[in-house]
Specification:
- The structure holds two protein chains of two kinds.
- Chain A is α/β, with parallel strands linked by helices.
- Chain A folds into two domains: about 250 residues, Thiamin diphosphate (ThDP)-binding fold, Pyr/PP domains (Rossmann fold); about 190 residues, Pyruvate-ferredoxin Oxidoreductase, domain 3.
- Helix content of chain A is about 35%, strand content about 15%.
- In chain A, α15 packs across α16.
- Chain B is α+β, with helices and mostly antiparallel strands.
- Chain B has a single domain, classed as Alpha-Beta Plaits.
- Helices cover about 30% and strands about 15% of the residues of chain B.
- Chain B has three helices and four strands, in the order βαββαβα.
- In chain B, the strands form two sheets. Chain B has a two-stranded antiparallel ribbon with strand order 1-4.
- The C terminus of chain B is likely disordered.
- Classes of the chains: A alpha/beta, B alpha+beta.
- The interface between A and B is large, with 44 and 41 residues.
- β1 of chain A pairs antiparallel with β4 of chain B, so a sheet runs across the interface.
- The structure holds thiamine diphosphate and iron/sulfur cluster (3 copies).
- The site of one iron/sulfur cluster has 16 residues of chain B, from β1 and α2.
């Protein structure tokens, strides 16, 4: 009989498989964590690891670790790991989930991380109802940095930054993140649990698993706030710290479910995946099919050392930015490296406006043009402002009746014409920019006509304006030819 | 029959080196079957040890312990048929309490 009654024992609660077998953070005792004795982080890690095991999701879990005492989650969990900048874990988790919709993404954050520096990120992740799981470890203090007050620090609680105890008048009230987030429509499940005694720990274990299950079922945003002991900073022995959670902390932070829409929530439709890089031209309407015909799409035979630096300046409304844009777009079309950098004040119409354009054979190192090879000054103040900056040997195209003497320079070439008036004669003074551009193109001779034509059609679109602008460009070119003939 | 020693339902294994002597398991154990040693371990903590009897295999010490594998709880194995019934019952309890 005795041989029949003596039974074997089998393991029912053992080291979860979601932990690495060895933690390579230190040389010896590689199965031990870096946490202080009695630290809540260790207990919460175990709950999480166990839930991952039980749900069988280890190979599709991505854990986003925070900055704080739990910064080393990636040494412990044998899952996909990302370590986020302070406070950003829920934003990073959002990205991970969007990029890998089939994964289970956990944002693990402390109270300093989530409720102070990361308060915006968590608010918006919750409001978007991201299908992620947030484990919010509230120990009412910044522990890693040695015990500064957090937004969650209790009234009267001493910290290095509230040595007399937190006072509502100077430091405000303890921030109830769970209650706050539960007012939003996005989340499906928010619960606050504690590690204050056996009963609380059992409930916390369930809540952590539920928060993960919700995500697996596709329901949406779940957050579990865990009131968690920090014996070291609280300066309490581990067992007393545990009791402090139950007897003191819980009074400020009542436990319970603040939001549960899991019953009525239907699985969230997955957000449309981000478009691939190759699709972006079509979405922006700049792929070959959406573009009007007339693109040269060919390399121009320009000198290998081509480096055209143009500064266009004038009043807002004179088409200064468009002039630069057409030039840059045409350069792109002709296979050159280009940059276009607009620079204007807060006012769109009046006020000054200018832009920097570079066309080069080489990669453009900086889009700034401080010493232009061509300055297009569409009014007198702009000429005054920029004439000194032109590179010796360069050009100034000035939109005026006569070139002001005080802006004279012997080392640059100047062309003065009333571009605006000429455009007015052609049909609209606003085409003065294209008259100036025509002159610039004729002078520099770097771009084929087809490229300019294509750029114009792409940027201007309205056929009436394209027609006028083309006449204005031709007029500008003719101006240069005439003036050369005069010489 | 009376000479048959009744086996405890549970058994406990503690990894002395991993244990940090926090004492949370000692506090948590309902039948008080865990104690802290007098001696120090490798890291200078007084490691927990199983008192040798009384364990029910409830597992609360395991969930309370902050270290991944310092505690392992074992339970008396029973014939497969009995185990199945048991796991179904546990499932039911878990549902009801959710
Ligand atoms: C951008 C940035 N600001 C500040 C810090 C300094 N810092 C490190 S941890 C921490 C607070 C952590 O507190 P909590 O999130 O509550 O985690 P705990 O350490 O308590 O687990 C701070 C302020 C940092 N690392 N990065
Ligand atoms: S300082 Fe506090 S939170 Fe940080 S590891 Fe130690 S006990 Fe844990
Ligand atoms: S399993 Fe339960 S009874 Fe056994 S040692 Fe742990 S807490 Fe005590
Ligand atoms: S809870 Fe874990 S670490 Fe703490 S004394 Fe018990 S076995 Fe050791």
């Amino acid at each position: 009989m005795p041989s029949e009654t003596m039974c074997e024992y089998e393991v029912v609660h053992g080291r979860p498989k979601a932990f690495y077998e060895r933690f390579e953070r230190k040389e010896d005792l590689q199965h031990q964590t870096h946490y202080c004795p009695g630290c809540g982080h260790g207990i919460i890690h175990k709950m999480l690891a166990r839930a991952i095991d039980e749900l069988g999701i280890q190979d599709k879990t991505i854990l986003v670790g925070p900055v704080g005492c739990s910064v080393f989650t990636y040494y412990y969990f044998d899952v996909g790991n990302i370590q986020a900048a302070h406070g950003r874990a829920s934003a990073v988790a959002t990205a991970a989930k969007r990029a890998q919709p089939g994964s289970v993404v956990i944002s693990y954050q402390g109270d300093g991380d989530l409720s102070a520096i990361g308060s915006a990120e968590i608010l918006h992740a919750a409001n978007r109802g991201e299908n992620i799981t947030v484990i919010f470890v509230n120990n009412a203090i910044y522990s890693m940095t040695g015990g500064q007050a957090a937004p969650t620090t209790l009234l009267g609680q001493k910290s290095t930054t509230t040595p007399l105890g937190r006072h509502a008048v100077t430091e405000g009230y303890p921030l109830h993140m769970s209650e706050l987030l539960a007012t939003l429509q996005g989340p499906v499940y928010i619960e606050r649990v504690g590690l204050g005694d056996n009963k609380q720990i059992v409930q916390a274990t369930r809540a952590v698993k539920r928060a993960l299950e919700n995500q697996v079922r596709g329901l949406g945003f779940s957050l579990v706030e865990v009131l968690s002991p920090c014996p070291t900073i609280w300066k309490l022995p581990p067992v007393e710290a545990q009791r402090w959670v139950r007897d003191v902390m819980e009074k400020t932070y009542p436990l319970g479910v603040f939001c549960d829409r899991t019953k009525e929530a239907a699985p969230r439709p997955e957000p449309a995946p981000a478009p691939g890089l190759d699709e972006i031209p079509r979405i922006l309407g700049v792929d070959d099919e959406s573009l009007p015909a007339g693109n040269a799409h060919r390399m121009v035979e320009t000198a290998a050392n081509l480096d055209l630096r143009v500064r266009v300046a004038g009043f807002g409304g004179q088409g200064v930015l468009l002039l630069g844009e057409v030039l840059a777009e045409a350069g792109l079309d002709a296979g050159l490296e280009v940059s276009w950098l607009p620079s204007y004040g807060p006012e769109i119409r009046s006020g000054t406006s200018n832009c920097h354009v570079r066309l080069s054979r080489q990669v453009v190192d900086s889009p700034l043009v401080t010493q232009p090879t061509v300055l297009v000054a569409m009014n007198e103040p702009s000429l005054h402002k920029f004439y000194r900056s032109v590179t010796p040997g360069g050009w100034i195209l000035y939109n005026g009746e006569s070139y002001p003497q005080e802006c004279g320079r012997k080392d640059v070439r100047v062309m003065t014409r009333q571009f605006t008036h000429i455009a007015d004669e052609l049909g609209d003074p606003r085409a003065g920019n294209m008259v100036a551009l025509g002159a610039l193109l004729e002078i520099t001779g770097v771009l084929p006509d087809e490229s300019i034509d294509g750029a114009l059609r792409r940027l201007v679109k309205n056929p009436k304006w394209v027609e006028l602008d083309e006449r204005a460009l031709a007029r500008g070119r003719a101006l240069v030819k005439e003036s050369l003939a005069e010489v | 029959m009376s000479d048959i020693v009744k086996q405890d339902r549970g058994q406990l294994r503690i990894d002395e080196d991993e244990c940090k002597g926090c004492g949370l398991c000692v506090e948590a154990c309902p039948p008080k079957a865990i104690r802290l040693s007098e001696h120090l371990n490798h890291s200078g903590y007084r490691p927990a040890y199983y008192a040798g009897s009384g364990c029910t295999g409830c597992g609360i010490c395991f969930m309370t312990c902050p270290e991944p594998g310092a505690i392992t709880v074992l339970r008396l194995a029973r014939p497969a048929a009995a185990r199945q019934i048991d796991s179904k019952m546990q499932g039911a309890v878990a549902c009801a309490s959710n």
